[in-house]
Fold this protein.
Amino acid sequence: MATSGTLFFSHIIPVILGLIGILFLGNGIMQDEKKLTIIGIVLFLIGCFVPYIILPFLIR
């Protein structure tokens, strides 16, 4: 049985980071601000890779 926290790191954090990343990305593109666009890309990529980085340590 998986330890507690796996649902949080596999389903909740990636969705929140991905949504916020897409909002920053769209806002940065629409307002032509590179800083917001880069923040959006970084947040989206962090949301994509968080489960692959953290979950192996929790499931062991």
User: Anything to note?
Assistant: The chain has a mean pLDDT of 91. The two ends are 10 Å apart (CA to CA). Residues 1 and 51 are 17 Å apart (CA to CA). The helical segments are 6-30, 34-59.
